[in-house]
Amino acid sequence: MPKLAKSVAEIGNKLTKPIGDDKILVFNSEIANIPGIVKLTLGEPDFNVPDHVKQAAIKSIEDNKSHYTPQKGIPGLRKAISNYLAKDYDVNYDPETEVIVTIGATEAIYTSLSTIMNHGDKILVPTPAFSIYMDDIELLGGEPVEIDTSKDNFKLTPAKLKEVMAKEPDAKAIIMNYPSNPTGVVYSKDELEALADVIRDQSLYVISDEIYSQLVYGEKHVSFAKVLPEQTILINGLSKSHAMTGYRIGYIAAPKEFIDQASKVHSFTVTCPSNPTQYAAQEALENGLDDPIEMRQTYQKRRDFIVSELNELGYETVTPEGAFYVFPAIPAKFGLTSDQFCRKLATEGKVGVVPGDAFGEAGEGFFRVSYATSMENIQEAMKRLKAFTAKLL
């Protein structure tokens, strides 16, 4: 095994060194080897990819679809994305000039930030939020400005947004994620329009990460692009809706002027997505729009069970309206930080959940429970949590 030469050991991007590894994955790895632990940690759907989607990927291989594709993605998939967005969310994008197929929503986020940011720029992030947003901003030399939503049932209010924008007039963008990871909150059309009224005509992009939009349990999802299309960078993908996390297909939809620049970043970073996954995604969007229904119904049953159990045990919970996470508060009388509580629950209670501080400062005092696992695992975890809680009281 080679050891890095001393002559190059100090060479590197200074922005990468202060950034730690993904806190969710690190914590999950640290508790993984605890004997008998039941893990409710990762946001990994426990469903299989629908068979007709798999067959589309196989057929593309058999048909020798093995060469470079257009950098923005194959035309059929871009058209399928455009049709899907128009049909389900009533937002309209030209598949030729306003859509880019990316390597998952993760690349879509990084590409979008890279396109609009310069060194030292600030990006607004309502928290608790998926930690990758803050990490990407810092990796690009920017500064994330966290907006604490924990006192407002985890929703950004127009008043809070006005206050922050007044303090940070030079911010380049705000990242919205709903249904939210980790809280599961959803915004209504009225709530989105109220936020849009604050942002409209200001020098501020909205990067709207709507990857969980097919997992909404109440009113139908409304895209931010519906209320503010001129300033919105819409991000979505197939990972959660069709359990295609490993296929790595996401996309960006935005006005042409933005896409013209973002496509440069995308092409220089990844060249293009793979053929089989693109043909699979096209099949999912053309013939699999009903595929998420069974998954959504199953997730809702799991959600209802977990929320009921948590509330009965005294854990205050904002009922999630989407995604597959619950974000309960740790009772103050326990006297434990998020990390302390979760480590104690893992080692003594044999249940794995994620500390709330992995999602920003506003997540301290909470923990995230993923119900993207079997009801059997969930029932056993709640049984163990009950016994663990009794010992803390």
TrEMBL record:
Superkingdom in the source lineage:
Bacteria
Q: Which GO terms describe its biological process?
A: amino acid metabolic process
InterPro entries tied to this protein: Aminotransferase_I/II_large, AspAT/PAT-like, NHTrfase_class1_PyrdxlP-BS, PyrdxlP-dep_Trfase, PyrdxlP-dep_Trfase_major, PyrdxlP-dep_Trfase_small
Q: Which GO terms describe its molecular function?
A: pyridoxal phosphate binding; transaminase activity
Show where the Aminotransferase class I/classII large domain sits: 37-385
Q: Which cofactor does it need?
A: pyridoxal 5'-phosphate
Question: Top EC class per UniProt?
Answer: transferase
What keywords were assigned to this record?
Aminotransferase, Pyridoxal phosphate, Transferase
What's the Enzyme Commission number for this chain?
A: 2.6.1.-
- Annotated PANTHER family: AMINOTRANSFERASE, ASPARTATE AMINOTRANSFERASE
Q: Which family is it part of? A: Belongs to the class-I pyridoxal-phosphate-dependent aminotransferase family.
What is the protein's given name? Answer: Aminotransferase
